[in-house]
Amino acid sequence: MSAPTELPADPKPIKKLEKDISKDGKAEEKTMQSTFKDMYKQEKSAAKASKAVEKAEKAVKKLEKHETETVSSLRAATHKHDIAVTNLHSGQADLYAKQQQADKLKQDLANARQRADQVSKDKQVHDVA
Prior knowledge:
- The protein is mainly alpha-helical.
- It has one helix and no strands.
- The protein has a domain of about 80 residues.
């Protein structure tokens, strides 16, 4: 059989060892709590960042939809503008043609008056003679 283990005569080293073990346990507990606290903060930050990403994605989709609608509106406005320009050019051409026709009619009227005056003068000359 083995001999019984002898206890040290002085209890101070045992007390010191117990105190050191207790101290180490408290330090490990503190380190573990600090580690879990840091992990919790990081989880919270990661969740917040994920939420911010979702919000930004939603905003981008909304902006893309707005941009698409704006492009559509721009195309419609451009089409209306093209029609307006075509109508303007057509109106200007019509105005030019009508001005030319009016000028021709004025000239024809002036010629007709001149002939009427000449005929009237000729008639007066014949009537006098």
